[in-house]
Here is the input.
Amino acid sequence: MSYKVEKVNPYNDHQPKKEQVSRMFDEIASNYDRLNRTLSLGIDRYWRRDALKELKRFHPRHILDIATGTGDLAILAWRILHPEKITAIDISDGMMEVGKEKVKTGGLGNIISFDNQDCSAMSFPDNSFDAATSAFGVRNFENIDVSFQEILRVLKPGGVFLFLELTSPEKTPVKELFTTYTRYVMPFLSGLFNTEQRAYRYLPESIAVFPQGRDMMLILKKNGFTNIRLRRYTLGIATLYIAEKPID
Here is the structure.
């Protein structure tokens, strides 16, 4: 099955989405952290921290961080959960280079490793990880179903998949305010940072057609996950999804 968000591309309709997303993030990598804090007003830090607390009761020892970007979620996961190992993957070398420097500065090189891998075709053996995490990366997947099946495959039985995504608020006036902010304010602010404005036009386009709420829960169920639940943040601007791999 194909979802509308899979057809929303940063640049054109001719190249594979994976190639375009990789190019886009390579181009904005140097400014990404600074701009992201500005655009989110710092609220994303709270979302990430609160989301990771959901994993505490599972005591994951080996975590897979998907679409890790500059490694923010991976670094925060170590601070909150203290796993033995975190494997961080992404398709943008530019973003991961920034993450590697942050990990090196924090003295976490023996805990967090980076690898250029597409989550729709990972090289890891079956049942490798206790948990898989992702922050604002699922919208960029070229094939959500295939990627979810791969994530299920590499999780251990009973393992947890936890991801955050930006979502469209459903109630007025927040819905209208969010639409205005993402369509007009975000591209304007990105221009002040001399960064790739197309990336911040792609953002609201992909949010608008991203399956969310019950629809996303049904997609997770269809792809084999169980015990699926969600939590909405900041009046629906972001949503946390949590799902588990069956033990049987």
Summary: The chain has one domain: 4-244. Strands lie at 62-66, 85-90, 112-116, 129-135, 155-166, 226-233, 238-244. DSSP finds eight helices and seven strands in the chain. The CA atoms of residues 7 and 89 lie 23 Å apart.
